[in-house]
Amino acid sequence: MNIGIDHGYSAVKTRHFSFPAGISAYSYEPYTLQNTLEYGGQYFVCGTGRQPILRNKTENRNYYLLTLAVIAKEIRQRGEKTECSVTIGAGLPLTLFGREKKAFREYLLYPEKPEDSLSPVCFKFEGVPYRITVQDVKLFPQGYSALAVHPELLRDEPSVLLMDIGGWTVDLMRLDKGIPDASTCRSLELGMIRCVDEIREQVRRDTGLSLTDAQTERILSGKPCSLPEETRAIVRRQGRLYTERLFSAVTEAGFDCRALPVILMGGGASLVRKSVEPQDGLCRAIYLTNDKLNAEGFERILEQMSGEVKKV
To answer: pTM, whole model, 2 decimals?
Structure first.
């Protein structure tokens, strides 16, 4: 079975699921088994809040544990057997791809030691036992892989700018005739975590209120909220300021959004969309607001690769 997984800084996504990348460890069984992973004699509640930003996701085993959790969720969603073999499709930003590919693949394939490769991993998720063999891990460039789901976006445009707005980084890539130009790839530390944190701080200064991330994101997305209009207006204003700063940084990175069509994707695309105004003068903005798109793209490419092997 092929499973695409997007290991984001703020959320881990698969084809069917997206939940926060936080994880909490317990020595004893917690009060609920919902989203609880039992592995190596410990309990881990997955999807709780947000974990500290890691420059290198292999620094600890949190992302591996979250990987086991999302594999279990996908198996249950698809009605597959709890004892099975899995090929993982995952991604890295193109700016880090060559440097981190080998280490991240090894981290997901055999986190303990190399001789564990192809040995089943035994764990429980929400009380159900699983016995999973990770046959292989294939890594692909983030953002560009998502276009495997929407190849039509590149069909009639000689050049486009792909802007993947994630939790911590905004990854930029220009594509010419559908081919990524590696020399143009940039990664800006201006993702939605920074946006939301700065908005919450401004609201605290102006009103004394301490908003949650969920409240802030809901206001940014234009959905109803019971907070006072004064507070909502601050959030919207700060969201606009963030958008202005983001496009300014994109221009400084060498991209002219007045000349290049821009494909905005990732968890921040729908939030930025609410703050874009006509005076920004974007040539053409295309919003892909499904935050699971990278994971779907990884899985689509895995399926295509499997098809090629079968034909041979």
So the answer is: 0.88
